[in-house]
Design a protein that fits this description.
about 140 residues, alpha+beta, five-stranded mixed sheet, two-stranded antiparallel sheet, elongated
């Protein structure tokens, strides 16, 4: 696959294929519980309408799998076959819990798509709340 990506035609800088449809990306289901976040960089090869090959550049393996699964759903407006890099930013959100285990933070879970080159996905870190334990976020994380 690597040789296919390295010999594929490139688009001129600034000219990228337009994504006609794509599934919404999600955080890998076990990644928040495992406290896995980070940046995934992938090289993508298109055949003129769909993704034909994906190669990992960098990132945590669990998040790489999630990003690749999402990219496989992308369909493009017809274009000259090309290759480009896509960056997925996976971020875990911190939040505080009150004495009744109501947990909230300033940031909300979100997905930001700047296709085809940038995707941002955020998710809350799962928390176990016990009203009998002091309510600071640090104490809850130590308990888990």
């Amino acid at each position: 696959m690597l040789s296919a990506l390295s010999s594929a035609p490139r688009h001129a800088p600034g000219i990228l294929p337009k994504v006609a449809s794509a599934s919404v990306p999600f955080y890998a289901s076990l990644a928040p519980s495992a406290r896995i976040q980070g940046v995934v960089t992938l090289r993508v090869l298109t055949d003129g309408t769909r993704v034909s090959a994906i190669d990992r550049e960098s990132g945590p393996p669990m998040l790489v799998r999630a990003a690749k699964e999402n990219i496989k759903t992308w369909q493009f407006e017809p274009h000259t076959p090309s290759r480009f890099e896509v960056t997925f930013h996976y971020k875990l959100l911190q939040y505080e819990c009150d004495s009744e285990c109501r947990c909230d933070g300033a940031e909300k879970e979100s997905v930001l798509l700047q296709l085809p080159i940038n995707v941002e996905v955020s998710a809350k870190i799962p928390m176990i709340c016990d009203p009998a334990v002091p309510t600071s976020n640090d104490n809850r994380q130590k308990k888990e």
